[in-house]
Amino acid sequence: VQETLSNSVDREENSRVGAGGAYRVTDRFRVDAEVSDGDLGAGGRLGTNYMHSEKTNLYLNYALENERGDNGLYGRRGNLISGVKRRLSDSSSVYVEERYQDSGSASGLTHATGISLAAGERWNLGANADVGTLVDSLTGAETDRIAGGIRIGYGFDKVFPNQFESINPVRLTQYIGEAAPGGFPWCFLGF
Q: What is the DSSP string of 122-174?
C-alpha cells in the first residue's frame, strides 16, 4: 500500500495498492508477477529469472507502469527488460540490460549497466549508466540519451526491518540532438 500524504498543485496524487508473488518452477527457473491499481491507473509486472550458474542470473521482465518519466510527465509506459546479473563476491554484483520502452510519447532501446556494492555491514552503494535512443511517436524525432547515476542506502537492521535508500537515484542525463525537459541539454534528477 502506498498513500500520498501531500502533493503540490502540479503533481498528481499517486496512492496505490498492489500484490505480487513468485513461483519457483524448477531449481533454476522462477516466475514472478505483481499487479497494482491506484490514482494513476492500473499497473503490473511479469518476470522470469533463470539461474545460469551459482553466480549468474538471466532475466526477462515486462512492466506496465503509470509513473512520471524523465520528461516530467505522467503516462502509461510499457518496458521490456532483458538482462544478465553476475555476483562478483558476497558484497558486489554487476548487471547488463537491454530495455525497450514504449509509451504514448516515445519509444526506443536503451543499453544499461550497473554495479552494486555492500560497503560494510549497513551501507550499500550503486552506480549505473544508460545509453539509448528514444523516438518521438508523433514527429519521428530521435533523441540520444546518455545517463549515469549513483545510489546510496543505509540499513537499520536493529531498529527497522528495512533500509533507507534514495528513492530516486541521483542521475545526470544528457540529451543529444534535442533539449531535455525545461529546454536544457542536461537534466539533473535528485533525491
A: SEEEEEEEEEEEEEETTT--EEEEEEEEEEEEEE-TTT-SSEEE-SS-EEEEE
At residue 117, the 3 state secondary structure works out as strand
* Beta-carbon-side half-sphere exposure of residue 49 (alpha carbons within 13 Å): 14
Joined together, the cell numbers standing for residue 72 give 516530467
> How far is the C-alpha of 124 from the C-alpha of 86, rounded, in Å?
17
Distance CA 15, CA 39 (A): 6
Neighbours of 120 (CB within 10 A): 11
Cα separations (Å) of 87 from 57, 91, 108, 171?
9, 8, 29, 24
pLDDT tens digits, one per residue of 140-180: 888 888 888 888 887 776 554 555 555 445 555 555 555 44
The pTM is what? 0.74
pLDDT tens digits for 40-71?
Answer: 778 899 999 999 999 999 999 999 887 655 55
Give the sign of the dihedral formed by CA 184, CA 186, CA 67, CA 46.
positive
